[in-house]
Write a structure and sequence with these properties.
This protein has about 450 residues and is mainly α. The protein has helices at about 1-25, 30-40, 55-80, 85-110, 115-120, 130-140, 145-170, 175-195, 205-215, 225-230, 240-260, 270-280, 285-310, 320-350, 365-370, 375-385, 390-420, 435-440; strands at about 40-45, 50-55. The protein contains 18 helices and 2 strands. Strand 1 and strand 2 (about 50-55) form a beta hairpin. Helix 1 crosses helix 6, helix 3 runs antiparallel to helix 13 and helix 14 (about 320-350) packs across helix 17. The two termini are about 30 Å apart.
């Protein structure tokens, strides 16, 4: 968990820097080079089959598939052994996430009535986990570990909602022949898993086939990453006991061989079994997640921010009705709708005794969590790209997301510092468990109770 939070926090800082660079670049005297770069045509093909799209397309529609693959892996792990594996433990983050998605969407619709603008109702629904975790990290020991884990669980459910919204409402039509291509990719993926093939670059082949199928169907192709992530085995082949048994046998064999005259080549067999035991002690899903997470946090998401956060202020008419409607809908939805929806839905769930607040978390903590959940950034900008075809509306939506996310983060920091005092050293639970262990223990009460 420490490693996960560190990567998310550091990735959030890098994301902020690249977003600032993109914004400054797009409004500098060299703004034309910004547009030229991302509109550079790039062609990929085999034989007579070829796709030619802009660099912006390949980043948003292909490279971001890795981001959605990571999301799918996190969802699979949480469903199998984490906070979502038990209905009672999952009720609080589920209720909070649903409220945090519905209320901002309703607020956005209340601000918008025109056919073009109202299509952006999905923009203020999403939470950017990297920035949200980064803000909580800045609060340090003031924030209980259970609140961070609750935020992670909420963000994962929020991602599920965003994926469903993208697949159902922001996809262009539906072509059944593409579905057959995607199904073929899924069958190849399952065949590789059935044969016991371990995670490697060979899995890029079926994922690319699924991606092409999704692109053909009209469903956004990045959903291929989610499908692949959900297919990954979340149970290890060896497990803890299997690892111990195999490791002990390998070490005993190694010890026996070094006590006798030998050739160093004789040590390869026990070392190979030891390496295999180490590898197979973790599930394929967790191994891929650990390997992919730094690439997504430090490269893919910052590159996405650089390609999408460059809003041209010259193209935004501040006094236009569209500006007031879209800006108001996105800003109010993220800054007010998120905390209001999260707290209201959580309060209802607790009052109905469906769940309780985690140990160490009160309603002040829930407000802080709701505020930082209003940082939409990555997914909100992603949905903006899908929702708006008009350049002016897209620019307004992106500018709104940037400003609203900054305001939501500032509110979370201010109230976090005001509500909580630094905890004495040793009073904060050590975060040394695995993601799955800690996320499955964020709720530790024996019976639901109302925490005032």
């Amino acid at each position: 968990m420490d490693r996960f939070l560190h990567v998310e926090a550091a990735g959030g800082i890098l994301l902020l820097i690249t977003a600032a660079v993109a914004f400054a670049w797009a409004n500098s005297p060299w703004s034309s080079t910004y547009d030229q770069l991302w509109h550079t045509p790039i062609s990929i093909g085999v034989g007579t089959w070829r796709i030619e799209e802009s660099l912006h397309f390949w980043i948003n529609d292909l490279l971001m598939t890795a981001f959605f693959l990571l999301v799918g892996l996190e969802i699979k792990r949480e469903i199998v052994e984490g906070a979502l594996s038990d209905v009672r433990r999952a009720m609080l983050p589920i209720a909070a996430a649903i409220g945090g998605m519905l209320v901002p969407a309703v607020m956005y619709v209340a601000f918008n009535s025109t056919a073009g603008a109202i299509h952006g109702w999905g923009v203020p629904m999403a939470t950017d986990i990297a920035f949200a975790v980064g803000v909580l990290t800045l609060l340090g020991s003031r924030i209980p570990a259970t609140l961070r884990v609750l935020l992670l669980a909420l963000a994962i459910i929020d991602d599920i909602g965003a994926i469903l919204v993208i697949a159902l409402f922001y996809s262009a039509g539906f072509a059944f022949d593409g579905l057959l291509v995607a199904a073929a990719g899924i069958l190849i993926l399952f065949a590789l898993l059935k044969m016991g093939v371990r995670p490697s670059f060979v899995f890029a082949v079926p994922i690319l086939i699924i991606w092409v199928g999704m692109l053909r169907t009209g469903v956004h192709p990045t959903i291929a990453g989610v499908i692949a992530g959900l297919c990954a085995p979340a149970r290890s082949w060896f497990g803890k006991k299997g690892f111990l048994e195999t490791a002990r046998e390998a070490l005993d064999d190694f010890q026996a061989r070094i006590d006798q005259p030998h050739d160093d080549h004789d040590l390869l067999a026990p070392l190979s079994r030891l390496a295999q035991a180490r590898r197979e002690a973790l599930s394929p899903a967790l191994r891929v997640e650990m390997a992919l997470h730094p690439w997504v946090a430090y490269f893919i998401m910052p590159l996405f921010a650089l390609a999408n956060a460059g809003v041209h202020l010259s193209g935004v008419e501040l006094g236009s009705p569209n500006f007031l409607a879209v800006f108001g809908g996105v800003t109010v939805g993220l800054v007010l709708g998120k905390p209001l929806g999260i707290m209201a839905a959580s309060w209802i769930a607790v009052r109905l005794k469906l769940c309780s607040l985690p140990d160490g978390v009160d309603w002040r903590g829930m407000f802080v969590m709701g505020s930082v959940a209003g940082i939409g950034f990555t997914m909100a900008i992603f949905v903006s790209e899908l929702a708006f075809e008009q350049e002016q509306l897209l620019a307004i939506a992106k500018l709104s997301v940037l400003l609203a996310s900054a305001l939501a983060g500032a509110i979370g920091l201010v109230f976090g510092w005001s509500f909580f005092s630094p905890r004495p050293s040793g009073s904060l639970p050590e975060i040394t468990a695995s993601d799955a262990e800690l996320s499955s223990e964020y709720w530790t009460g024996d019976a639901p109770s109302v925490n005032d």
